Amino acid sequence: MRDRFSDSAGFARALAAFVFALHSTQSTLAAAPPDGPAAIEAGPFAITPTAGVETRHRDNIYLQQDNGTDSWIYLARPTLNVLAQDRNNTYQLNYQGEAAWYQVSRHNDDNDYFDNTISGEAHMEFSERWIAEGFVSWAALHEDRGTGLSEGLIGEVLPKPIEYDQGDVAGSLQLGSQDDVGWLLLKAGYMERQYQNFKELTRPRDRDETTLDATFFHPVAPKTDILAQYTFKRIHYPNPFEDIAQLDSDENTVSLGAQWEITPNLTSTAKASYIDKDFKDSSRADWDGLGWTLELLMQPREQDTILVTSTRHPEETTLQGNFIKREVFTATWTHQWSDRVYSELGGLLGQDNYAQSFDNREDDIFNASLKVGYEFRRWVNVYTGYAYDRKNSNVENLSYRDYVFNLGVEFSL
After folding, report:
1. Cβ–Cβ < 8 Å for 235, 209
2. Position 3 pLDDT exceeds 70
3. Residues 39, 55, 114, CA angle at the centre, nearest 5°?
4. Stretch 135-151: mean pLDDT, rounded?
5. Is 12 helix (H, G, I), strand (E, B) or coil?
């Protein structure tokens, strides 16, 4: 299932300004890791292109409850990273694409797609106690058939996937450091999503989100901090359905938790939250309740890495109800069998409750996957995998099962 994060004049200006700042910076190259993709040195920049090709077979490409349609799918994934570094400051431009061609299309459908994402990042350390980061991206994406706004029978009737553009701008400022009594992390972000086809269905689901976040960390041990966090999110739908209550809302979240360091670059986090969601339209029922976030990283042995995550939070609805109360638990175990052979075993359990839906909709979601890879050379990685995806819904025509087999190769310099 996909739910990935539209272009506007302000967003375009921000992207142009970021590119200009990047090209005008006097910087030196960061050394490419010896066991990773090699970079091309071009003046002050390190350019790292990679590419992947994959063959995939799916049993139920429309995610239908009965009479699923299977198809072979052929994918190509080009990526490009441009990195510049000046002491501890880094600046990056990234491109990521994914093109897919379906062997089988029913009712003369066009299932093929070509997703593109362009992003820029900046990390600037003015001192040990003043660290700023910025992020900007634009993406032209799609929703897989049977997901998002094309759930159920809608996904079978539409002649092609639903497409949307999404722009994101975000920044953060860290004040203080782990050596102080406490340190503050401030964040701000803006997201705008605009659907590009089937406007009668999708235009009222265009939305933008503004997020403000402040987190205070207090060290209680050399590698452990307790934290207090406040997050405000304003969600706006600029083109609502006529004669239907608007979905605009404000979310206020207060969280308490802890963060601890596994390695200098990896941390685990546990937070408990109180969430209050207020709708602008009084005909929609407000909600408040408990939420949580857990990201637990463990390395019981050098060759094993286990990542466990769990969240409970409100999510914007697709077609029913006021919003979705979503609970998700995931676990991933990565094992390095040798210098070249590795495996990844993953699982997901989730439940979606559609608040105030006319049919009291509730979905149970399960996913299991296995991937085995062989690093044939430093610049060639071959992998194969199998996944099982299932959704059980109490609403007719929304349950499905899907079996996915894939075989792929990743290339780099």
Report:
1. yes
2. no
3. 70
4. 95
5. helix
**Cβ–Cβ < 8 Å for 323, 249:** yes
Q: What is the structure's pLDDT at 107?
A: 58
- pLDDT on residue 106: 58
Cβ–Cβ under 8 Å, residues 73 and 58: yes
Other beta carbons within 10 Å of 238: 12
For the chain, what percentages of helix, strand and coil (3-state, to nearest 5) are there? Answer: 5, 60, 30
Report the distance separating Cα 101 and Cα 166, nearest Å: 23
Write out pLDDT tens, residues 214-261: 999 999 988 899 999 999 999 999 999 888 899 999 999 999 999 998
Residue by residue, DSSP assigns 298-336 as E-SSTTEEEEEEEEEEEE--SSSSS-EEEEEEEEEEEEE
Q: Helix H segments across 24-152?
A: none
What length does the chain have? 413
Residue 136, exposed/middle/buried by CB under 10 A (0-12, 13-18, 19+)?
buried
Structure tokens at 99: 């093109």
Mean pLDDT across 10-26: 36
pLDDT of residue 39: 86
The rounded distance, in Å, linking the Cα atoms of 58 and 402 is 7
Contact criterion met (CB below 8 Å) for 289 and 277: no
Q: H-type helices in 60-193, by residue range?
A: 153-157
Question: CA 132 to CA 175: how far, in whole Å?
Answer: 9
Q: Is the dihedral of CA 9, 189, 262, 130 positive or negative?
A: positive
CA dihedral 14, 20, 23, 26 (to 10 degrees): -100
Provide, rounded to the nearest whole percent, the portion of the chain with pLDDT above 90: 72
